[in-house]
Amino acid sequence: MKRFLLIVALLVPLLLLAQEVKLERVEPPNWWTGFKNPEVQLMVYGKNIATTTVSVDYPGFVIKKIHKTDNPNYLFLDMTISPGTRPGLAVIQFKSKDKVAGKYLYELNERKKGSAPRKSFNASDVIYLLMPDRFSNGDTTNDNCLGMLENADRSNPDGRHGGDLQGITNHLDYLKDLGVTALWLNPFQENNQEKYSYHGYSITNYYLTDPRIGTNEEFAKLCTAIHKKGMKVIMDQILNHCGSNHWWMKDLPSPDWINQWPEFTRSNYRAGTVSDPYVSTADSNLYVRGWFDKTMPDLNQRNPYLKQYLIQNSIWWIEYAGLDGIRHDTHPYPFKDVMSEWGQRILEEYPGFNIVGECWMNYPSNVAYWQKDALNKDHYNSWLPSVFDFPLYDALTRAFNEPEGWNTGILRLYEILSQDMVYPDPGNLVVFADNHDVNRCLDTQNDDVRKLKMALAFVLTTRGIPQIYYGSEILMTTGADKGHGSIRKDFPGGWPSDTQNKFTAAGRTPAEQEMFDYVKNLLTWRQSSDVVHTGKLLHFIPENGIYVYFRYNAKDAVMVVLNNNEETRHLDTKRFREVLDRYHSGTDVINGGEIGDLSLLAVPSKSALIIDLRK
Ligand code: CA
After folding, report:
1. CB contact at 8 A, 196 and 247
2. Do residues 158 and 195 touch, judged by C-beta distance below 8 A?
3. Straight-line distance from the first to the last Cα atom of the chain, in angstroms, rounded to the nearest whole number
4. Residues 161-212 pLDDT 10s
5. Distance 165 CA to ligand 1 centre (A)
6. Left (φ > 0), alpha (ψ -120 to 50) or beta: where does 34 sit?
């Protein structure tokens, strides 16, 4: 008996200790009334939170079901928001043995009027991609933040440089003046990693702006300011992986929250495995379940709670900040069935919303598999409206650099475009000459500014949604080491200590100013050129290093000539009669001036000629 009492005496404090309850977080942190889907699933985290009794006393906002996992520190609450539920603060109460162990004030907001259908981004836009850490440091007080593992160090190409949302806000006039109409920001959510945290692709908190970049409120304000200038915002999101320092990595809701391997196992990065009819299980498994990097644990989107978490997180950001679009990273890597549901859920809440996925493959057939409504043999529908045109990008890196041949040189552009029959909506592809993951266009064009100009002229006039990379307009190049840090150099003038400021004409060299004017002129013209946004494309097989194509509709037409030769060519236009017969003159968009005679066109070496045709 004594022995028994002793055991009880020892166990009681241990049991009490084990029952210690602490509420730490509820996500999504708030939600909205008025969504089509009346349900939201809350993830509740805190020590022994699953041992509590949960209640909510709020008219219309009720707990439908409570889910537990093997980890007592998590609860998943299925909440229903009945039609007519008023916005306000609902108290979610957690009771342990009749004592209140925690309370969370859950904010139900009213959706902004007209927030459901979105104009989103489309071919009338020109997207400007910038990396928040590398564009401009508008607030030096947030360069280093308490609790954040990596401090700013501009001398390290792979370190944080201090750029932030304030820096972007400070240069909206610059961007507006340049003529871009949509901004795609590389990820800005918290990346509390020891190293390489600047690029943003190792998220450690999906609901928080990295304090070194700014705050959620600042991001929402920036979006409002961008909208006031008539521009759009595209947010970079990542559902495939999180950062290894994500808070849940220390205490996973369940072992299957991430794809686990006995030892670190890298993905084979072969996105083609997803649609390959002959794929082996070993290859497809390694592609989807392998980790992108040691510091990027591979999420298992098929875990039903994680699936809800990720879908709701995307919707949360759209509603919270009034986003105009999403760019989704490493799109084919997550489980494709879940990504399809993700896209469908977003489009149901926001009809017309555009999402562009990074499906990095060089064959149009591989990429087309991922565009919404593709006629895939396995009947897979991605619900992803847009994809990046990587095959055309790949062609662009070669077209102006190789000798002309039967299947080399400028013909590469023609050949890729001639395969557009595989895409359900080629006009909604995002076209680009470079981005944050590849050498800058000027670099792939062997530092030849003429070829950079040709590449941009092509991107801005072919079918699709053009995207340009920050700094192309001022001839930014990749650093000598060709590393990622060098591809993402700081925009000169974005830091208070910079000696040169390329944001202003006074800070640019004559060559940089000439490039800036070239880009600005084309972007300004493009803004009002409906035929380039929505007109049909008609092209002619390149001959003698010259590629000719037209964008046309019932009203207007634009002629583009790309001369890939090292000398000026005088182009006899008889071959293009089927279009040109209806036109007698035109305006030279790039150089200005009238072209009274369309029968013979002089096109300087390695250049683009764009003509607004007139009847
Ligand atoms: Ca800063």
Report:
1. no
2. yes
3. 108
4. 999 999 999 999 999 999 999 999 999 999 999 999 999 999 999 999 999 9
5. 8
6. left
**Same structural domain, 464 and 512:** yes
Ligand 1 center to 598 CA (angstroms): 53
* Rounded distance from Cα 187 to ligand 1 centre (Å): 15
3 state SS of 59: coil
Q: What is the pTM for the complete model shown?
A: 0.95
Distance 117 CA to ligand 1 centre (A): 35
> Mapped to the 3 state alphabet, what secondary structure does 67-115 carry?
EECCCCCEEEEEEEECCCCCCEEEEEEEEECCEEEEEEEEEEEECCCCC
- Closest to 469 measured CA to CA, from 124, 160, 134: 134
Q: Which of 143, 164, 329, 490 is catalytic?
A: 329
Q: Any catalytic annotation for residue 263?
A: no
CA of 137 to the centre of ligand 1 (A): 5
What is the per-residue pLDDT across 3-25, written as a single tens digit (0 to 9) for each? 555 554 544 444 445 579 999 99
Are residues 355 and 317 in contact, defined by beta-carbon separation less than 8 angstroms?
A: no
Indicate if 522 and 545 belong to the same structural domain. Answer: no
Domain final position from 528, 545, 566: 528
Reported as a single tens digit per residue, the pLDDT across 476-495 is: 998 778 889 999 999 999 99
| Residue 177 CA, ligand 1 centroid: distance in Å | 24
329 is catalytic: yes
Place of tokens 């990504």: 339
Containing structural domain, residue 554: 535-614
Last residue of a domain, one of 528, 558, 573: 528
Q: What is the number of structural domains in the chain?
A: 3
The rounded Å distance from CA 102 to ligand 1 centre is 36
- Do the Cβ atoms of 164 and 170 come closer than 8 Å? no
> Concatenated DSSP letters for 547-596?
EEEEEE-SS-EEEEEEE-SSS-EEEE-GGGHHHHTT--EEEETTT-SEE-
Q: Which listed residue (150, 210, 358, 512) is catalytic?
A: 358
For 468, residues 6+ apart whose C-beta sits below 8 A from its C-beta are 126, 127, 128, 129, 180, 432, 433, 456, 459, 519
**Pairing of β 30-33 and β 99-110:** parallel
CA of 338 to the centre of ligand 1 (A): 36
Tell me how long the chain is: 615
DSSP letters of 482-522?
--HHHHTPPPTTSSTT-S--TTSGGGS-HHHHHHHHHHHHH
CATH number at residue 602: 2.60.40.1180
Distance of alpha carbon 552 from alpha carbon 532, whole angstroms: 8
Spatial CB neighbours of 258, under 8 Å, sequence gap ≥ 6: 249, 252, 297, 298, 299, 300
Ligand 1 centroid to Cα of residue 595, in Å, is: 50
Contacts of 263 (CB under 8 A, 6+ apart): none
Token couple for 427: 């006009």
